[in-house]
């Protein structure tokens, strides 16, 4: 399978890290591999065929193409191996992932490379045949170039990238974390790679220090060979990981639901008492989409399924079924006519028990605090630094572009100093104002109370409802007023309705607040999360009905329970 001598670099001892040893086992200075010396030896043994052809020669012989293909293959595989090894090091040392991934990544990578057939004996001959066919198609009706050596190099490199893309290193790293049962999500891998915390986008700049510069003039530079063409999204990365696992015959376990759900609850600042109940719902459902799938078009991402189970658990525990809990929380403005301080005092004096109103309040507050921006988008200076170090790394920008970047940076620094001076002056003015107000505290409180009495509390409620309706319509949801009277109590399942030749999701505000917080945390569309939740609800309702039928429980005796399913129908004109 891997009989060529130049493919032996894959199994070099620099990648043989045991699963029980701390990573890295050797200093970074000793990680340089031996492929450059091997490529140089092959180039010297090939004699005149490895030198650049004379100016009058327009074609390359099969021997020359074979030599070029072997050299490029050795360098490409070695470079990807180094990139994968550095990703493993960063995951262990920076993001505190278990060192056991250091023993998993090499075996998966070797099996993946072997499954592509790149190291087989007939791969070079196949490349030569494909190149001749490609050249014959290009030659029809076109004029031949003066030299085809550069075209041969790019054709071989493009063939290697199609078989083993550069982003496959990220997929193998995610697979190793998944097998190690670490709570590392595809969104984490994508974000770390995008922010250059994980070696991927700009690692080609450091490649010369590990595999050296090309020893033959005909070979491609490292910045061209290892510069990524794209960065996959989290859903596509998960699909690529599933394809690699299927290709190498790897039986994947389901997602570590406990670790993923615990992390979500911690980030949403929800009590950990929810976790055991969520695990029971998960064990009861065992959704098939909790396994990594190779298809990114059908089904739902695994993180979305985890979020859906949590949403169902919260709805069952806190009875979030359209009773207007969020609308009732707006009534504190109307109930307290004196001041806003009385409203906040009422909230703080309530019982410490975590109920539905407290759940919605926490999710609303956390939703505003969830930061979806990356580190490089904090300010202009950070973005310019990110552009120079990552986006345009290895490139020689034009002089006017460099001057424009420096001009923008100088303007930002000046404005930052100016804003700091303004802030200091405002702080001084605020301090003096507070001191004067303290001297006339009685007059100040009297004016404040008189101003609060002039504000209509019902106007604030209407504005809050209008904002909620407008936000829901922007996200293709339709606001449903809370129930006033219901014949039976139970779990409400919503339906998709058709309005103006479009499908609209009609839901209550309480349920929408759950969707909004969880979808922002998972960085997915709310409609996708809602569709996943509806599918799991239908499956859970089917289980309940089958159990009731099997036990011959009369329907009137099974009603009124905590998980009675009522389908919500809405008529829209």
UniProtKB/TrEMBL annotation:
Domain Rrn7/TAF1B N-terminal cyclin as annotated: residue spans: 80-202
Q: What is its main location?
A: nucleus
Q: Where is this region: Disordered?
A: 17-62
Compartments (UniProt record)? Nucleus, Nucleolus
What are the protein's GO molecular function terms? RNA polymerase I core promoter sequence-specific DNA binding; zinc ion binding
Per the record, the domain of life is Eukaryota
**What are its GO cellular component terms?**
RNA polymerase I core factor complex
Extract one GO BP annotation from the record.
Answer: nucleolar large rRNA transcription by RNA polymerase I
Going by the UniProt record, its keywords in alphabetical order are: DNA-binding, Metal-binding, Nucleus, Transcription, Transcription regulation, Zinc, Zinc-finger
* DNA repair keyword on record: no
Q: Which family does it belong to?
A: Belongs to the RRN7/TAF1B family.
This protein's name: Rrn7/TAF1B N-terminal cyclin domain-containing protein
Organism from which the protein derives: Rhynchospora breviuscula
